[in-house]
Automatic annotation (TrEMBL):
Organism: Actinomadura viridis
Record protein name field: Acetyl-CoA carboxylase carboxyltransferase component
PANTHER family documented for this protein: PROPIONYL-COA CARBOXYLASE BETA CHAIN (PTHR43842), PROPIONYL-COA CARBOXYLASE BETA CHAIN, MITOCHONDRIAL (PTHR43842:SF2)
Domain spans labelled CoA carboxyltransferase N-terminal: 1-256
CoA carboxyltransferase C-terminal domain boundaries: 260-495
Any Pfam family matching the protein: Carboxyl_trans
GO CC entries: acetyl-CoA carboxylase complex
GO molecular function: propionyl-CoA carboxylase activity
Length: 513
């Protein structure tokens, strides 16, 4: 028995140690190994590996009979801040992390376990793609992964971390998950690589230019988070998990309350200019409303005219959607609506209350926007809010004009509590624009058009845009002092904590995708 145990122990050490030359090559590329990544991601000593001895059964085309253990992916379960997660880490030192039949079967098994246990799934991607030598079974393996992603969507949180190449069909896996992290310089994600692009189009492009972290973080919107190195990336994955429920039937983990219900923030009276066209950073408002150092912003570099973030208010997790006047004056456009809609749907799926901070002059006008389908994309955000049954609080910080006011979780589409600051302006459009439309003929015929315009603007503002106009009609529940915003929101969330929503009986709605 001692000899058997010794041989078994030696085999395990051989598997976990890996090929030293391959490990050196991985480090030379500026990347950690799969096991080093798992050590950073998970609480120490909590990882339970599954299918360590799994390897392919067939040889494959000109494989030389190589059948390494793990088959290029490490699968198992561990804990993050004491909470259960399931994780797989592709091992680039074994077959370049390529996906073959055994590799895919391990991932399928892990995904099934994660769904059955009701715990988050984390994928650490570092793969050359499908293992061509195994033919169509590799494609079949990807199909099984995609099917399981869809089955788990809205049931358990799914997180993809791109730490190397993620090419071809493999790229659809991150696209189906809830959050995607990428690391600059080492991570690439695309359907067709530079060689194929050049062969088809004649255009020469580098891996980074085609599908690097900067591209997907700032232009395509595929990457939710972009980091400079693997260590900071995996640390933020840990923080994200600390904000999420294990599944759609559990509440998000709470932190100790901080007395937010009586917390006044004098800075809020100074941050926002009274002038409706003067910019300011909405992030400063968010920082004053939520708990200190709790904000995790999503898609920070994409569609920057709207902010989406997870944070805590009095220890409870909330999703924050806010217009950003520092970018395009905070207007909504096609990409901003897509960004916010997906975030609203995620929060609703996992029972996370929504706080919407509104300072929006409207939708971005223009031929490009109309041709880009701003109607369809704006309808996505409208649909997402209308469908959401979680507690919803709207705060009109300054202005809310036109259809964008409706879309930003107005009372008319079902927000539970609408609050407004004293300088709020809620209207079809700004006073100057409204006067130009309504009194066009009178202004054209006037001896002093500018004087008349100023008089009419003052009258329009006084009659239709005064701070209590919406409150008098029940479209705003309370006009609050800005310094009391954090307290008012905290009290509102406490009031709505036991809210229960219901939806009509149907298979599913038809989202304007």
């Amino acid at each position: 028995m001692a000899g058997i145990r010794l041989r078994h122990s030696g085999l395990r050490e051989q598997i976990t140690g890996g090929d030293s030359a391959a490990v050196e090559r991985q480090h030379a590329l500026g990347k950690l190994t799969a096991r080093e990544r798992l050590d950073l991601l998970l609480d120490e000593g909590t990882f339970l590996e599954i299918d360590m001895y799994r390897r392919r059964q067939g040889g494959g085309l000109r494989s030389g009979g190589r059948r390494p253990y793990t088959d290029g992916v490490i699968t198992g379960s561990g804990e993050i801040f004491g909470r259960r997660v399931f994780v797989y880490a592709q091992d680039f030192t074994v077959f370049g992390g390529s996906l073959g039949e055994a590799h895919a079967a391990k991932i399928h098994k892990l995904m099934d376990l994660a769904l059955a246990a009701g715990a988050p799934l984390i994928a650490l991607n570092d793969s050359g793609g499908a293992r061509i030598q195994e033919g169509v079974v590799a494609l079949n393996g990807y199909g099984g992964i995609f099917q399981r992603h869809v089955r788990a969507s809205g049931v358990i949180p799914q997180i993809s971390v791109i730490l190397g190449p993620c090419a071809g069909g493999a790229a659809y896996s991150p696209a189906l998950t809830d959050f995607t992290f990428m690391v600059r310089d080492t991570a690439q994600m695309y359907l067709t690589g530079p060689d194929v692009v050049e062969a088809v189009s004649g255009q020469r492009v580098t891996h980074a230019e085609l599908g690097g972290a900067e591209v997907h973080g700032g232009r395509s919107g595929v990457a939710t988070f972009v980091h400079d190195d693997e260590e900071s990336c995996l640390e933020d994955v840990r923080y994200l998990v600390s904000l999420l429920p294990g599944n759609n039937l559990e509440p998000a983990p709470a932190s100790p309350p901080l007395g937010a219900a009586s917390d006044e923030r004098p800075a809020l009276a100074e941050i926002v200019p009274v002038e409706p066209n003067k910019p300011y950073d909405m992030r400063r408002v968010i920082d004053e409303v939520v708990d200190p150092d709790s904000v995790l912003e999503l898609h920070e570099h994409w569609a920057r005219n709207v902010i989406c973030a997870l944070a805590r208010i009095d220890g409870e997790v909330v999703g924050v959607v806010a217009n950003q006047p520092m970018m395009l004056a905070g207007v909504l456009d096609a990409v901003a609506a897509q960004k916010a809609a997906r975030f609203v749907r995620f929060c609703d799926a996992f029972g996370i209350p929504l706080l919407t901070l509104v300072d929006v002059p409207g939708f971005l006008p223009g031929v490009d926007q109309e041709h880009a389908g701003v109607i369809r994309h704006g309808a996505k955000l409208l649909y997402a809010y209308c469908e959401a049954t979680v507690p919803r609080i709207q705060v009109i910080v300054r202005k809310a004009y036109g259809g964008a006011y409706i879309v930003m979780d107005s009372r008319s589409i079902g927000t539970d509590l609408s609050l407004a600051w004293p300088a709020n302006e809620v209207a079809v459009m700004g006073a100057a624009g409204a006067v130009n439309v309504i009194f066009r003929k009178e202004l054209a015929a006037a001896e002093d058009p500018e004087g008349l315009r100023a008089e009419l603007i003052a009258e329009y503002t006084r009659e239709l845009m005064h701070p209590h106009y919406s409150a008098e009609r029940g479209l705003v529940d309370d006009v609050i002092d800005p310094v009391q915003t954090r307290a008012a929101v905290a009290r509102g969330l406490a009031m709505l904590r036991t809210k229960r929503g219901s939806s009509p009986q149907r298979k599913h709605g038809n989202v304007p995708l």
